[in-house]
Specification:
heterodimer; A: Alpha-Beta Plaits; 5-stranded antiparallel beta sheet; B: 36% helix; 4% strand
Chain lengths: 243, 160
């Protein structure tokens, strides 16, 4: 029977309370060094959307309260035999090693965004050429100043890129003492200062939080900080066969 | 103890916090991180497969330059009150270019996944593109021939 696979837990782990996708009971398929947290897929066709994603996240969150969990990517379905053979048996050593390595560690996902207007003000104030081009194009028709506007935007983009690199590095430098590892995502849009996942000892979460709070306070009005977690270590699990 | 709790309150300070209920914020993690094995079947994800469209905003583009120029031109440096924020700007600059089309696709997908109650998030993220998921989503095209039909029988097998 097809199984929805949420994650990998300790070989002697118990399923957390609550139900899984489509209300199916959560079960544990145990292997030698690790176990899979699964639930039966319903027999009828199931379309996966927001609700199922929330369930996936909630189950992992509940499992994290019990102990270490290596999260699967959302949407993994395998036959029961495949879970036992191809996942737990073939990758048993790697999974056991990662369970050991990631024990007591959680992921905190941090996103820092620029506030648009203060950012633009700083960029104008920081570069005389930008300020001058701004003065020359402001109030004139977009057509008449087309090339100057492109030049202006190009300068702004360059200045933003340099500022972002510097601001992001400062944040990473500040946060690295309280984290064990970090995964930085490429900025997904212009206002992103930093999008990063930090691997943190569970007992250091409060310390990380306080530090982040101080960094955010010092940048209030210029940047907005968001932090999600503690989460299972999504960004820090790996299998040789990970595609 | 605060460090053990899996969800944290809104917090007293400057950092906006959430547990995994902040689904929008961890969409990338759920879709693109975590373990997979070569034999896995990935279910059809309603709307979510659209996120594989590479809609990452191209910063080095004329469209973006013009938008930046617009943004600095809108600043009223003589006063502290500037009513024109980015959302307004984005509304104004909807050209017929590929970026706009991608944006539409992504917003459609986001809506499919998150419903309309996440409108704030869209605004938080600037609304000028697909939000947080696009950069990581590019690599997902590798993860196989997921079908968009929604039928389990047509699930793609990933890998070879």
């Amino acid at each position: 029977m097809a199984q929805y696979v949420y994650g990998i837990i300790d070989a002697h782990g118990e399923p957390p309370a609550g139900t899984g996708i489509a209300g199916a009971p959560l079960r544990v398929l145990a292997g030698d060094g690790a176990a899979a947290l699964v639930s039966d897929m319903p027999a009828d066709d199931l379309r996966f959307g927001r609700q199922e994603m929330l369930t996936h996240a909630r189950v992992l969150e509940a499992a994290l309260e019990h102990g270490t969990v290596l999260p699967m990517r959302f949407g993994v379905v395998m036959d029961r035999e495949e879970v036992s053979q191809r996942l737990l048996h073939e990758h048993g050593e790697a999974l056991a090693a990662q369970l050991h390595e990631l024990a007591g560690k959680v992921e905190l996902s941090v996103r820092v965004l620029y506030e648009e207007e203060p950012l633009m003000r700083e960029l104008v104030a920081g570069d005389p050429e930008i300020a001058e081009l701004r003065r020359r194009t402001q109030g004139h028709s977009a057509d008449a100043t087309y090339y100057e506007r492109i030049r202006l935007g190009e300068l702004v983009a360059g200045a933003l890129e340099r500022r972002r690199a510097s601001d992001a590095q400062k944040l990473l430098d500040e946060l690295s003492p309280v984290s064990l590892a970090v995964e930085v995502a490429e900025p997904s849009h212009e206002r992103v200062v930093l999008g990063a996942s930090f691997l943190v000892e569970r007992e250091s979460v409060a310390e990380f939080d306080e530090l982040l709070e101080r960094l955010a306070a010092a940048r209030a009005g210029r940047m907005r900080f968001k932090c999600v977690g503690p989460l299972p270590p999504h960004s820090f699990v790996d299998l040789a066969a990970t595609v | 103890m605060a460090t053990m709790g899996m969800t944290r309150g809104p917090g007293s300070g400057y950092v906006q916090r959430s547990g995994s209920a902040g689904l929008y914020e961890i969409l990338d993690l759920l879709l693109d991180k975590g373990l997979v094995v070569d034999v896995f079947l990935r279910v059809s994800l309603v709307g979510i497969e659209l996120l594989t469209v590479d809609a990452r905003i191209v910063i080095a583009s004329v469209d973006t330059y013009l938008r930046f120029a617009e943004a600095v031109n809108r600043l009223d440096l003589g006063s502290t009150q500037d009513s024109e924020g980015l959302p307004q700007l984005v509304d104004d600059v909807t050209s017929g270019g590929a970026q706009s089309k991608s944006r539409g696709v992504l917003e459609g997908a986001k809506e499919a996944i998150f419903g309309s109650d996440d409108e704030d998030e869209g605004e938080d993220e600037g609304g000028e593109n697909g939000g947080s998921s696009s950069s990581r989503s590019r690599s997902r095209s590798r993860s196989g021939s997921r079908s968009s039909s929604g039928s389990r029988s047509s699930r793609g097998r990933s890998g070879s």
